[in-house]
Amino acid sequence: MSRTLIKEGLIALKEVFNRPYELEYTGSYPGTIDATAMTEDKRIIEIRMSFNWISDILLDELEMGHPNYGNDNWEDIDAGMDKLKQMGMSMKHSNGQIMFQVDDSTDITGRGDATRILATVVEFIKTIMNAYRNIVSIEFTGQGLSRQRLYRTMIRRLGRIHNMYQIMPDSDVFMVASKSRAPYLLKIDWDNIYNTFK
């Protein structure tokens, strides 16, 4: 394939990614924000971001990662939380959990507009992150390797905007953090969280 064709293909892909479907924000409830969009063939894209405290996620990780998990080792866990606060963790920092589907299905491929749908989800995340500066990480729901590939595509796009990088890479959770908003999240050894404090 010639360099000209490759360049033209990359330009076309960039143009599609810059044309998300128009979003309509349909609701903001305690802990969630919802939006919808409509594709050219009238399919409905539904997107939801749910919020939880990053401190709750880290507390769970500390508890489950403790060598004596289940034996109420709260002194160690409290010490770990104190260390995370010293590293920059704020009790106000939030994690946004993203769920999206098209016509009640999590399968968005097969119609030729998967890139525009991804662009729409990215636009939703950008808008929410710009509005809420306390959001420091994004967690994607959805199973299967195809979704993992889709998420990585979105992260490459978000990475250029909000310095997003994948954390917990060996987990079944696909989660990314903003390097500029929460650099401490990238310093954690997620495989053995207590290694972080040695």
Over all CA atoms, what is the radius of gyration?
19 Å
Q: Poorly predicted ranges (pLDDT <50, ≥5 residues)?
A: 4-13
C-alpha end-to-end distance: 51 Å
SSE series: HEEEHHEHEHEE
Helix content: 25-40%
- Which overall shape is indicated by the principal axes computed on the Cα atoms? elongated
Structure description:
It is built from five helices and seven strands, in the order H-E-E-E-H-H-E-H-E-H-E-E. The protein is α+β, with helices and mostly antiparallel strands. The protein has one domain. Helix 4 packs across helix 5 (145-162). The protein is elongated. The model is unreliable at 4-13 (pLDDT under 50).
SSE topology sketch:
Layout: H1 3-17, E1 23-29, E2 32-38, E3 44-53, H2 54-65, H3 74-87, E4 94-102, H4 114-131, E5 135-140, H5 145-162, E6 164-167, E7 174-178
Parallel strand pairs: 4-5
Antiparallel strand pairs: 1-2, 2-3, 3-4, 5-7, 6-7
Helix pairs in contact: 2-3, 4-5
Keywords:
alpha+beta
Describe this structure in a few short sentences:
39% of the residues lie in helices and 24% in strands.
